[in-house]
Amino acid sequence: MKIIYLLLFVSILNPCYSQGNSDFELFLRQLQKNPVNKRQGVVENFLLEVKQTPVIENKTKVHFTWYGKADTVKIEGDLQQSWAIPAALFKVECGVKDFFYISYDVPSDALLEYDFVADGKKVLDPTNPNIVQGFDFSDRNIFNMPDFV
Questions:
Q1: What gap in Å lies between CA 75 and CA 77, rounded to an integer?
Q2: DSSP-derived secondary structure letter, 20
Q3: Are 92 and 82 in contact (CB under 8 A)?
């Protein structure tokens, strides 16, 4: 029985690579349909529309995004084995800046902390104004899912 609970827990917190037909997945398809030199406008319009990240859909789906100049972007936090193993974000080339993303299924009442590592340097999510001081006294972003009390 313990193995079943462990497998269920791990499957909930694993990144989702296929989203189905969520709004975010539709945005990604639209972004990738455009030539690289037109993608910047698509990303900037998307970020203006969502106003704040991470993007939360259907109470349990969370999409982390980062837009800027970098070769690699990783996320570290509560979802990445309690800060132990950063996860690489997927990269969509957009010209001068690139769009990075990763998605997870999480409990609808979660409260989670995270930060990004862009080209080896820790950075905060520029579109999430919610910042707390972590156990190591560094700043990090925080967000909650819709059913958090």
A1: 7
A2: -
A3: no
pLDDT tens column, 64-90: 999 999 999 999 999 998 899 999 999
**Cα–chain center distance at 27:** 14
Beta-bridged to residue 77, according to DSSP, are 114
Q: What is the pTM (predicted TM-score) of this model?
A: 0.84
- Written as six digits, the tokens of 79 are 């979802």
User: In the chain, what is the straight-line distance between the N-terminal and C-terminal CA atoms, in Å?
Assistant: 29
107 preceded by a cis bond (ω within 30 of 0):
no
Question: What sign does the dihedral 87-134-112-110 (CA atoms) show?
Answer: positive
Q: Among all chains, which residue has been given the structure tokens 């859909």?
A: 57
Q: Which residues contact 26 (CB under 8 A, 6 or more apart)?
A: none
